[in-house]
Design brief:
two-stranded parallel ribbon; Arc Repressor Mutant, subunit A; Double Stranded RNA Binding Domain; about 180 residues; alpha/beta; single chain; 2 domains
Length: about 180
């Protein structure tokens, strides 16, 4: 899922689980990297992925604070982050269009409350394709904004975690779900 323009800024910040990162286009937040990399490696990765973008904390202060709170076990939410043009710049998301299946899947994923899970089938139905669980799984597997769009809350119908394409894989997904359930 590609963003709508070139990256203009990126940032790396600490959390209690390790370094996280993010990148923005002119239209909003377009990339989030969950804790997995050493800070210097993550900075290198984002600089490579975002040629010409500036490394700038001020564009990420709100996101940084919420991510740090989340990984400290607080029920930090991202519901007010939006792709609406009137959203405050710090809370604006750069998402695929609402008419695309991927765009509908990502938006539907946002409806899963903190500490709860939903199935891939639920996600497909919420994205207006009831027989599209595999397609929904593929679309959510390319989620560029994990945590902000809580794809870790999407599991198999029987409750098993399913896949997780973020660095750290299924083990990171399990840890995030345990963190939320402990709250």
């Amino acid at each position: 899922m590609s963003q709508s323009g070139p990256f203009v800024a990126f940032c790396v910040w600490p959390t209690s689980w390790g370094a996280m990162g993010g990148a923005r286009t002119e239209n909003g937040l377009a990339r989030v990297v969950l804790p997995h990399y050493a800070p210097a490696e993550l900075r290198e990765l984002l600089a490579f992925e975002c040629p010409g973008a500036r490394c700038d904390e001020k564009d990420f202060e709100e996101l940084m604070a919420r991510c740090q709170a989340y990984f400290n076990g607080q029920a930090a939410g991202f519901d007010d982050f939006s792709d609406r043009p009137d959203a405050p710049p710090a809370l604006r998301l750069d998402l695929p269009g609402e008419r695309t299946f991927a765009g509908r899947v990502l938006r539907a994923c946002r409806a899963v409350p903190y500490g709860q899970t939903r199935s891939y089938s639920w996600l497909a139905e919420a994205a207006s394709k009831p027989d599209g669980a595999r397609a929904a799984a593929a679309a959510i597997g390319r989620n560029p904004l994990p945590l902000v769009l809580p794809c870790h809350r999407i599991t198999y119908a029987g409750g098993e975690p399913g896949g997780f394409s973020a660095p750290g894989g299924v083990e990171l997904k399990r840890r995030m779900l345990q963190l939320e359930k402990a709250r």
